[in-house]
Amino acid sequence: MKIAIFAGTFDPPTYGHLNIIERAKSIFDELHVVVALNKGKNCLFTSDERLAMLQNLTGQWDNVKVSIWDKLIVDYAKEHKAKILVRGVRNIGDFSYEFDLALMNRGLAADIETVFIPTDPKYFILSSSSIKELALFCGDISTMVPPLVAEKLAQKINL
Question: What is the pTM of this model?
């Protein structure tokens, strides 16, 4: 069984994230979407809120599991017998960052591969941080995030 992991902060989940999840779940037998707790990031949503949104958004797919992890992602992979890390890339800047991360993970766990999936072109400019900023200024984010996420963002920033 091919088990893959797609980890990120998902603050908030976007249509770009869902595009990568939907494509990866079609390639691998099981996909773990992991809400990574990154102490270096100041998130708008709590890890439990992000977990709940992703569970709701992926609940129709039997081979997708969502969880939270606060350690190295390669340790999660080892614990769950996963051999593949999925990384979404939108542009060359993403690729450069993700490539360095893949090399580091490879150094930590040589038996775990990283697979890059380029985003669908229609989600090319989406980033969670730009969506949060746009929402703060009451911009239209309806084409960037699912209605559930738009609603949660509005509640969070008191629109």
Answer: 0.94
